């Protein structure tokens, strides 16, 4: 089986360099890096990496259309090149080691490649589990499931279990030439909920949930598990939560209302209510 990585890059330098070095230290077959129209310094790093190791394939885009668009381009490249392969998705500040790859191969064979997706434990350099990259054990499409989701999110941790949706960081799928999974990636989200929507679609198409495997560990080089939102990011988070609710059959938009209320109260608490208002009013 061919094992590949699809990574999207955008104007990171030192972290991108480290991710490439770490991945090339494994016996991964190919690393496809889709660059979202970065500046000269980032593109120079990518060009140098591709010249030094033939396993690195660079796809340069002429505009930044978001991570999900880049992932769809990279996955389509893999689908066109290989009859069958296993692909792991990463941001340019994330990587894994040979232990991860060895364990992934063992787990794929053990489960006979049957799950629509596999999601790993994601930690930072301090060993902290990152809340932002934890999968959804259940999609909160009703008030009952919102409560269940919040409860499970606090308890989620040290055991393998089935999950309904997951983050792109370390997300792993099996590709076949006649099954274009790249078409399931929502390319209009730009940021937020693209990964959850993609994995929900994978599970729905496959008729089976994905699986979280605790022995698969991916490093995500960020300080903590919670982002500080500006109006730009928050606008996408709020609007895409509505899209996600619609996607998963949350006809009353309960999950989206929960997200809106949570961030309204958070902005109010931190005296940043203007950020919330600007996010709501921002045109996309």
TrEMBL record:
Protein's organism: Escherichia coli
InterPro entries: Glyco_trans_2-like, Nucleotide-diphossugar_trans
Domain of life (superkingdom): Bacteria
Pfam families the record matches: Glycos_transf_2
Protein name as it appears in the record: WbrV
Residue ranges of domain Glycosyltransferase 2-like in the record: 4-104
